[in-house]
Amino acid sequence: MDDLRVPPGPGASRGLVIPTGELLERFSRSSGPGGQHVNTADSRVQLSLDLATTTALDEPQRTRALQALAARLSGSVLTVAVEENRSQRRNRATARQRLADLLRDAVAPPAPRRPTRPTLGSRRRRLQRERRRAEIKRNRRRPDLD
């Protein structure tokens, strides 16, 4: 198996190359259709990469990837599982492509926020909340002796 190449994108202008030794592949039996073949072939592929120790990422990329993929990580390990095809070879290629896509998107810096003006409705609601709050505070005052 060759090194995994991540195409260039924002955050990785020259792309990334993940050495084969840092990728962990596990194979197991896949569920779903396949007849008798499904009971004998380990066509499901789990491809894992430890983002904390990989040499493919520099520190800013590592920080962005860990932050962007936090929901998908187990510790600092990113795992992609594929069992779409009956062929192990196709599942391996799909898993590698998915991992590359995830990493390319994860190392990209966040898009800058475009400042927008508050809508008319949001301004009206804010002023209405302020008036309501002022009324509550006015009602807390000591009554006049007049």
UniProtKB/TrEMBL annotation:
What's a single GO MF annotation on this record? translation release factor activity
Q: Which GO terms describe its biological process?
A: rescue of stalled ribosome
The residue ranges flagged as biased composition, category Basic and acidic residues, are 132-146
Q: Where is this region: Disordered?
A: 102-146
EC number of this enzyme? 3.1.1.29
What are the Prokaryotic-type class I peptide chain release factors domain coordinates in residue numbering? Answer: 17-140
Keyword Transmembrane helix tagged = no
Q: Please name the Gene3D superfamilies in this protein's record.
A: 3.30.160.20
Keyword vocabulary terms for this entry: Hydrolase
Concerning InterPro entries, the annotation shows: Pep_chain_release_fac_I (IPR000352), Pep_chain_release_fac_I_sf (IPR045853)
Which enzyme class, named as a word? hydrolase
Q: Basic residues composition bias: which ranges?
A: 122-131
Q: Indicate the family of this protein.
A: Belongs to the prokaryotic/mitochondrial release factor family.
Name the record gives this protein: Aminoacyl-tRNA hydrolase
* Originating species: Dietzia cinnamea
| Primary gene name | arfB
